[in-house]
Structures are given as structure tokens and as C-alpha cells.
Write a structure and sequence with these properties.
With 343 residues, the protein is of the alpha/beta class. The protein contains 11 helices and 14 strands. β1, α1 and β2 form a beta-alpha-beta unit. The mean pLDDT is 97. The structure holds nicotinamide-adenine-dinucleotide (NAD) and uridine-diphosphate-N-acetylglucosamine.
Length: 343
Amino acid sequence: MKNKILVTGGAGYIGTHTCIALHESGYEIVIYDNLSNSSYEAINRVSNLIGQSIEFIEGDIRDAGKLKEIFNLHEFFGVIHFAGLKAVGESVAKPLMYYDNNVSGTITLLAVMAEFGVKNLVFSSSATVYGDPETLPINETSPRSATNPYGQSKLTVEHVLEDLAAADKEWSLITLRYFNPVGAHESGQIGEDPSDIPNNLMPFISQVAVGRRDKLSIFGNDYPTIDGTGVRDYIHVTDLAQGHVAALDHLQQQTHAAGFLPINLGTGRGSSVLELVNAFSKVNKIDIPYQFAARRAGDIASCYASADKAQELLGWQAKLSITNMCEDTWRWQSMNPDGYNTK
Ligand code: NAD
Ligand code: UD1
């Protein structure tokens, strides 16, 4: 059976963890990444963790010529497509850059895949496509909307994939909608390494813990939630990585193409900002100073997944707890105070 996978964006946060999980499950990997938000060091560390050098090609998903060279060299079973830009604020300031990378880049990739008859894709979508949910937990048939160019770029790609699946029945297009990925590999060797001031909660908490930031601002304490702070479905990146293996295993077992198949990857449980901050402090025995601040524009009160479809279809469910997420984040951050730049 063909088991070689092209991993676009494989040098990034979720990509590196997924490459390890793929390797452990017997898949062969080729990473394709332009290193716009990652580093060689991340790839070196993945190679060290798996005990062999990983095949890496530096390149951009918008470069059809380079992609064709790679598809000529390798016979792929499918593509896991992480490559893309993900900062909401930056997407508002630079929408063209986001649509070009995330939408045009994906279309270029799909066209090359079609040309080479490789029609299995696992795409990184996001819970952001559910906008402000009307009901909780959120299942895959919930209405979709976007409030910023980043979210719109994910939603647009989903529409492209739906149209493609309708036009050509040979495609399997698994669209994984991640809830809030946090945590790091248990070794402490790889993890999330924001190049700028972190936008997301967990990296901000861990940078406060390591002394890179003075205190956390909690955006809003008057939401209709358990303690007034925002509720999200935090999922350990190692569980998320296993979700990709389960998606590929599912495609390997199918006799018919899956078409457009959206699947939530979440735990099904929500935690508030204060619950996460308190858990981090307790588990790691570190005080996290915080202040309450105004709500952040575009934020919603609560968001958590129904994870039933992933369980039923892929036999996958998240296993790791909030305690694991806090411990592993801190192991990575304390061993690498400056991320991959740590000497
Ligand atoms: P990341 O930035 O760490 O990884 C993305 C990788 O893609 C980086 O290594 C970057 O260099 C590469 N890349 C970007 N544009 C490229 C291009 N044009 N050509 C080739 N490589 C390119 O991000 P991540 O957190 O690992 O996220 C992976 C995917 O999951 C993204 O598509 C993101 O939008 C999506 N996602 C992430 C989250 C999250 O909270 N981290 C949540 C939902 C969805
Ligand atoms: C954010 C993005 C979303 C993206 C996701 C993953 C916004 C509006 N949404 O989701 O599109 O898919 O990241 O990259 O940016 N919080 C604080 N203080 C902080 C940071 C966050 O209180 O310094 C709060 C937020 O208000 C929220 C919770 O923590 O209630 C989680 O925030 P975050 O980690 O940014 O994730 P999302 O807002 O869910």
C-alpha cells in the first residue's frame, strides 16, 4: 500500500507534531515548507526525535513548478495541507497576503495534485468557520460564517473543496476543523514558537511564566459563562496529531472516495480563561499575574466541539487532559525560553 505523504507546512507547530505521529504509525513523510513561520531547527529536532533524518524541501505552495518537480520524484498516497498564515490581526491588516497564501496557495496545490492523480487531502480548517455559534456543542452541520480575512480564507477553501468534490467523485477531502490547539511534545523538544507577541492564550500564559511578559490581560470578564471569561475547547497538539493519522488511516481503508468530509477535532469540553490560568498555576506551581481588560474585538463567549463524528468515523478521541496540556506547554517553554532560538 502507498504510504508516502506530502506534508505542506510540516515545519510548523502542528505539522512537526503530526510528522512524529505519522512516522510512529509507519507513514513516510516529505515536508514542504517555505519557513515563513518556522525554522530549520524545528526540522532538526523532529529528525532527532524520530532517530532519522526527515526529508525536507524548502518551497512555497504557490510555486506550481516546484510542486510538480516533487510530485514527479515521489509517488504520494496523499497530502496533509498545513501550510498557511494564521494570525487574525495580521489578516485584517494584510488581506491580500492571506487570500494569496491560504486560498491561491491551496488552489495551486490542488491543481498539481489533480494533474498527478493524487486525490487524497487532509486540510487544516478551523473552528473559526463556525463564527459565533448559535448552539453548543458545535457539530459539523452548524452554520458557517467568518468575521475576519483569516476565517474567510479558511471558509473559502472549504467551499473550493466542496465544489471540487461535487465535480469529481475521485477526491477525498477531509477537512479537519481544529478547536484550540495547545501543549507540546512530551519531550519538551518541540512546541509552539510565536515569532511575535502571542495572540493566543496558552503561549501568552507560558511567556508570562517564563518571565518574557509581565502579566496576562484577560479579555473580558462579563461574558455569559461560568466565571465571565471566554470558554474554549483546548485540545492537546499530540491528540490533534493523532487525529491526522486517524484521517489518513480512514482513507487507506476506504474502497470509495470520501468526497468533502468535514470533521471537528476537539475534546467536547469547554474551559474558561480563568480555569486555564488557574490550572497552569496549580500544575506547574507558578503564579501567573493577570488583569482584566476590555473584550477583544471579534471574540465570542463560548465555543466547544461535538467530537462525536471523529469518534464514529475515525475511531479517534482526545485523550490528554488540561493538566497534560499545562505540564507539556511548560516543559517546552522552560527548556526553550526563547523557543527555537534558545542556545
Ligand atoms: P504554523 O505557522 O506553525 O505552521 C504553518 C507552516 O506553514 C509554517 O511552517 C509556515 O512556514 C508554512 N507556510 C506558510 N505559508 C506557506 C506557503 N505559502 N508555502 C509553504 N509553506 C508555508 O501554524 P500551525 O499552528 O502549525 O497551523 C497549521 C495550520 O492549521 C494552518 O493552516 C492554520 O491556519 C491551521 N489552524 C491552526 C490553529 C492554531 O491555533 N494553531 C487553529 C486552527 C487552524
Ligand atoms: C483565535 C482566533 C481564531 C483562531 C484561533 C487559533 C481571534 C478573535 N480568534 O481563537 O480565529 O482560529 O485563535 O489561532 O483572534 N485571551 C485572553 N488574553 C490573551 C489571549 C486570549 O484573555 O492574551 C482569551 C480570549 O479572549 C479567548 C481565549 O483566551 O476567550 C482564547 O483565545 P485564543 O487563544 O486567542 O483563541 P480564540 O480566540 O479561540
